[in-house]
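Below is a filled-in request sheet from our internal design queue. Each sheet records the structural input a requester submitted and the sequence that came back. We keep these sheets so that new team members can see what a complete request looks like end to end.

REQUESTER: design group, bay 2
PRIORITY: normal
MODE: inverse folding
CHAIN LENGTH: 111
BACKBONE (tokenized):
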């Protein structure tokens, strides 16, 4: 059984792909799968799938969509310094956990 790691990337984050066939692409996170440590990035790692005819797709055929990417192969882009950066977690005075850019020490969640 795989060890579940802490993913500090959330839906709607802007990320840059750092490894793989789409290295260098920038996109928005569509979905995060915490159990498999993977995420879907908009218009990245596109895969084609053969689909049987159904009500939703009466003709069937080949459908193109995003494929999952391991979270370790992407970095969040900080909106204040506009660069890919590591993320630190900090606990505020009221006990709330906040994600912070390791480069510029700005709050990522408030942007």
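RETURNED SEQUENCE:
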């Amino acid at each position: 059984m795989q060890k579940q790691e802490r993913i500090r990337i959330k839906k709607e984050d802007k990320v840059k792909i750092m490894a793989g066939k789409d290295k260098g692409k920038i996109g928005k996170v569509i979905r995060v799968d915490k159990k498999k440590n993977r995420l879907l990035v908009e218009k990245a790692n596109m895969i084609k799938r053969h689909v049987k005819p159904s009500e939703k797709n009466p003709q069937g055929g080949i459908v193109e969509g995003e494929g999952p990417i391991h979270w370790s192969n992407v970095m969040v882009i900080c909106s204040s310094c506009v660069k890919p950066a590591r993320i630190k977690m900090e606990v505020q005075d009221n006990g709330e956990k906040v994600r912070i850019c390791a480069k510029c020490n700005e709050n990522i969640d408030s942007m």
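SHEET NOTES:
- The CA atoms of residues 17 and 76 lie 9 Å apart.
- Residues 14-77 form a domain with the SH3 type barrels. fold (CATH 2.30.30.30).
FILED BY: M.R.
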